[in-house]
């Protein structure tokens, strides 16, 4: 996963980047302080997502977002702004942004919103699995059954079943095979 954080205030960029790295340590992040730099990064790195402040040098909010959309058409774009002008926000929403969030929001709520709106970030969050669930995931990848995993780890099959259910939920998987595939795709195992 790769993202671009776009804000003309270095402190805001650093805060967003820090919160993102705390929650998703393996996500690559680039930063831009104005629209022209953001456009160049979007075209060069083809990010999976962009976090964008609307009030940046180089373009008005709508033209800025349109320029990013043109250069990163498949990226999830989330706006984090202090602008409260509904006409501007509606025009920005019409550009296909995944969400508009206030800079007054609490960091944890914003990170939850980002995780919900950016495909793939939830899977990366599983990097911080508890050690036992990491073990279970590794043994699932080896093709072991719940009974075999239970014997290997010295726990009950019912406990293994709970771990598998939690792993599937965190990875957004429909079954154990899908959980392994998603974990491998996200480079968790």
What does this structure look like?
This protein has 189 residues and is of the alpha/beta class. It contains ten helices and five strands, in the order E-H-E-H-E-H-E-H-E-H-H-H-H-H-H. It has a five-stranded parallel β-sheet with strand order 2-1-3-4-5, with helices on both faces. Strand 3 (49-52), helix 3 (61-71) and strand 4 (76-81) form a beta-alpha-beta unit. Helix 2 packs parallel to helix 3, helix 7 crosses helix 9 and helix 8 crosses helix 9 (157-171). 32% of the residues are buried. The mean pLDDT is 89.
Q: Which CATH architecture of the largest domain would you pick?
A: 3-Layer(aba) Sandwich
Q: How many β strands by DSSP? A: 5
Can you tell me the overall shape?
A: elongated
Low-confidence stretches: none
Rg, rounded, reads: 20 Å
SSE-based structural type: alpha/beta
Strands across the major sheet, in which order? 2-1-3-4-5
CATH class of the largest domain: Alpha Beta
């Amino acid at each position: 996963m790769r993202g671009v954080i776009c804000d003309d205030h270095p402190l805001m960029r650093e805060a967003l980047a820090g919160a993102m790295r705390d929650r998703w340590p393996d996500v690559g992040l680039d930063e831009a302080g104005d629209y022209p730099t953001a456009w160049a990064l979007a075209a060069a790195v083809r990010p999976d997502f962009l976090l964008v402040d609307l009030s940046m040098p180089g373009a008005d909010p709508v033209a800025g977002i349109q320029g990013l959309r043109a250069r990163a058409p498949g990226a999830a774009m989330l706006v984090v702004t202090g602008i409260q002008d509904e006409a501007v926000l509606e025009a920005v929403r019409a550009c296909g942004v995944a969400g508009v969030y206030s800079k007054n929001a609490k960091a944890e709520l914003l990170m939850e919103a980002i995780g919900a709106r950016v495909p793939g970030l939830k899977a990366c969050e599983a990097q911080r699995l508890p050690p036992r669930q990491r073990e279970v995931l590794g043994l699932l990848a080896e093709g072991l059954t719940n009974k075999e995993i239970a014997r290997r780890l010295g726990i009950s099959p019912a406990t293994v079943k709970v771990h598998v259910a939690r792993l599937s939920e965190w990875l957004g998987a429909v079954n154990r095979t899908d959980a392994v595939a998603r974990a491998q795709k996200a480079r968790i195992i």
